[in-house]
Amino acid sequence: GKVRAPTHIISTISDDRGEEPCYAGVPMSTIVEQGYGVGDVLSLLWFKRSLPRYCTQFIEICIMLCADHGPCVSGAHNTIVTARAGKDLVSSLVSGLLTIGPRFGGAIDDAARYFKDAYDRGLTPYEFVEGMKKKGIRVPGIGHRIKSRDNRDKRVELLQQYAHTHFPSVKYMEYAVKVETYTLSKANNLVLNVDGAIGSLFLDLLAGSGMFSKQEIDEIVEIGYLNGLFVLARSIGLIGHTFDQKRLKQPLYRHPWEDVLYTK
Ligand code: ACO
Ligand code: LMR
């Protein structure tokens, strides 16, 4: 019989060997002719399946809402400084992307992990938040530098509204909102932030769509797919900031001395 030489790479999401490339078995012509969107393509390449329209639309809304948040946030600031140092597009982009992490934009996976664990174990918001405090861990998905009880994050409201209308269940999001009610009783800026909203709502999407087994959901949460949504989305804005600085012919950035506390 045939002897198959061992391969050095295994790949399961795309194939370019035929007449046209396929994403998770779906040929490019189908993607174009049937009007697939970015949410559909993401579903094929990340989850290896087509998802219902309300799910792919939710993914696209996440991408649009997180595409940018002005020039002052960590990612845009880094990108702007890098572009002004005369660096190329990719360097400026990755300089901004490298700030995405547990404090900024990259708290989605941990928010999903902790909210899921707390909800599934039946913890009250009090038990959950105080338990985290005892462990010295800030609740991922809670807190914001400029948003607060009286200056709510519109993006969070829009995601919640969409899910209320289209998702069969929003149990994880409702749990996250109960956690927010408790944290807001402690401080005004401890709102459910956009990372927490996406993290909890994606749990609802995974559990409610009927497209994923329990084991698959656990794997997605454990591996951590969801920060990828912010990375993907914010790349759009960071590329825009790079072009903006180049267009404006901005010179090398130097931080003003007056804004530094020099001390021993
Ligand atoms: N959970 C519990 N307590 C918190 C949290 C939280 N998530 N955030 C702030 N606090 C409390 C803490 O007691 C903190 O004191 P500490 O420094 O001794 O821990 C106190 O509030 C003061 O914190 P602030 O100065 O108000 O918070 P800051 O403005 O520095 O941080 C931040 C904002 C980074 C978003 C913070 O709330 C946090 O770490 N949140 C969790 C991570 C997260 O969700 N990041 C995503 C933000 S949204 C985005 O980036 C797109
Ligand atoms: C963002 O999306 O970049 C913001 O939520 C972060 C911020 O501090 O405004």
From TrEMBL:
One of its GO terms (cellular component) is cytosol. It is found in: Cytoplasm, Cytosol. The keyword Cytoplasm applies. Keywords: Acyltransferase, ATP-binding, Cytoplasm, Lipid biosynthesis, Lipid metabolism, Magnesium, Metal-binding, Nucleotide-binding, Transferase. GO terms for molecular function: ATP binding; ATP citrate synthase activity; metal ion binding. Its main location: cytoplasm. GO terms for biological process: acetyl-CoA biosynthetic process; fatty acid biosynthetic process. Heterooctamer of 4 alpha and 4 beta chains. Belongs to the succinate/malate CoA ligase alpha subunit family. This is ATP citrate synthase. The gene is LOC103720655.
